[in-house]
Amino acid sequence: MVHLGDRQLRGTLAGWDEFINLAMEDMEELGPKGTRKIAGPVVVRGSQVIANH
To answer: Which of 2, 4, 9, 18 sits in a 20 to 30 Å window from 27, CA-based?
Structure first.
């Protein structure tokens, strides 16, 4: 699970680099209205990550 400010993303970590940029697969966004599937692989910029559980 990755926290990006007011957004929470859950998925499988596929890789990372020295800047903590995360390559993620099988992503879902968790929100007050429920869970939303995100298609395809996702790269999350390390500078946007607040917490990674």
So the answer is: 18
Residues 6+ apart with CB under 8 A from 29: 7, 8, 9, 35, 36, 38
Where in the chain are the domains?
2-52
Indicate the pLDDT class of residue 53, thresholds 50, 70 and 90: low
Its pTM stands at: 0.75
First to last CA, the chain: 5
Are 14 and 5 contacting, i.e. CB atoms less than 8 angstroms apart?
Answer: no
